[in-house]
Amino acid sequence: MSTTRIVVTGIGASSPIGGTAPESWSALLGGASGAHTLQHPWVEEYQLPVTFAAEAMVRPDTVLERPVAKRLDPASQLAMVAALEAWADAGSPDVEPERLGVDFATGIGGVWTLLDAWDTLREKGPRRVMPMTVPMLMPNAAAGNLSLHFNARAYARTVASACASSTESIVNAVEHIRAGYADIVIAGGTESAIHPITLAAFASMQALSKRNDTPETASRPGSIDRDGFVMGEGAGVLILESEEHAKARGAKIYASVVGGGVTADSYHITANDPEGRGASRAVRMALEMADASPDDVTHINAHATSTPVGDPNEYQALLNVFGDRVREIPVSATKASTGHLLGGTGALEAIFAVLAVRDRVAPPTINITEQDPEVPFRLSGQPQPLGAGDQLAISNSFGFGGHNAVAAFRSV
Amino acid sequence: MAFTNDEVLAGLAELITDETGIAAEEVALEKSFTDDLDIDSISMMTIVVNAEEKFGVTIPDDEVKNLKTVGDAVTYITSNQA
What we know:
The structure holds two protein chains of two kinds.
Chain A: E1 6-14, H1 21-29, E2 36-37, H2 41-45, E3 52-53, H3 66-70, H4 74-89, E4 100-106, H5 111-124, H6 133-137, H7 141-150, E5 155-159, H8 165-178, E6 184-191, H9 196-204, E7 234-242, H10 243-248, E8 255-264, H11 277-289, E9 299-301, H12 310-322, E10 331-332, H13 335-338, H14 345-359, E11 361-362, E12 384-385, E13 392-399, E14 403-410
Parallel strand pairs in A: 4-5, 4-6, 9-10, 9-13
Antiparallel strand pairs in A: 1-7, 1-8, 2-3, 6-7, 8-14, 11-12, 13-14
Helix pairs in contact in A: 4-7, 8-14, 11-12
Chain B: H1 5-20, H2 41-55, H3 61-64, H4 70-79
């Protein structure tokens, strides 16, 4: 594999704490929470055990033109909004269509479209099931629509590795550019699955926080009293580009993507390996690709979902790699603010890691009442300065199915 | 309750605008769905399904291919109302 350097030249996000990437970053630095009590009638109708979530702050169908929005599931709408922002941010690059790719992720796909169609079928019969149902619900809908919109013909791939998906998309994109198949890849992930079914199902497996009275403090990764994750919604997109291509067109460069690692646990369908072996290997792979040692890492955006068992498992995995120094590295567990965007989470956190190395600051982790001694990361409720020197950040994502994905970003 | 030709045309224009973004005033009887309005087969079926509900008619799949123009659709709907 060649040593082509890959850089980030555009970012876009539609998240629970902001309608754009800069708004989300600024809200994160300010300690915002995107979680709130859900106002939908179905919360009461089905007596859901969890009555809150972190919905996207701006409904994407209020941003997109109606004929565009109408043909997209909300997950793809969010992807489109974030991609339009990222593409414009990158300066709407002039690139040969055959050299432009899409690598996009979702955990669940068009769950709203599928379940709405099921309701229509039962209430009104098969004739009323809309012809666009299948192209809207398919998991590759976002990738396909982005390819169509941006005229991307190098490839358009979809990754589905649950909550690791969009970090895996970023790693795929890096490998694709390095292999010489594309100059630019629109990479990221999306999720819009705050639905009574998913809330009921995640609650049934005891994965969700039940702090119905105080939603904004419910997601508290690393805190001793954490009781589960908070469902989030949104999308993140990064424009990844070979450095040569970016420099030739005089593009603004946020950071470089220097490494990626993807592994599988083969341990349990939902639980992490308590010894963190697969996750450790993914971190080591990312550092090896970056030609870096664990000592070079200056910031970690942890997966840290706020579940009782997940957070200490991640600590163990990082302890394997970094040794005791892991307690000195400024860590951010940004799901405290954003909730868990499932298939969109890795891309949003990658954007935060990119901005952290650019601005040389680790964003705060809110809601820690007392830090769990089993999760002794260096977390802070305030932004942590990273110092003036070169920065190397990793962003971790782990998913049901035993998927581990890690991306590494270096300051420029 | 029977719809007049004008009401069906106005109703169809609304459905077409909603589906495609084409301005309602562009939707006229002589316009071809494919050649003039650039409506693809999926949008056409979406409009048909919505028109069936709006006007309380049934438009069999075999009939859809005969609806070349907006006028064809207006005529079919007004003459097949329950």
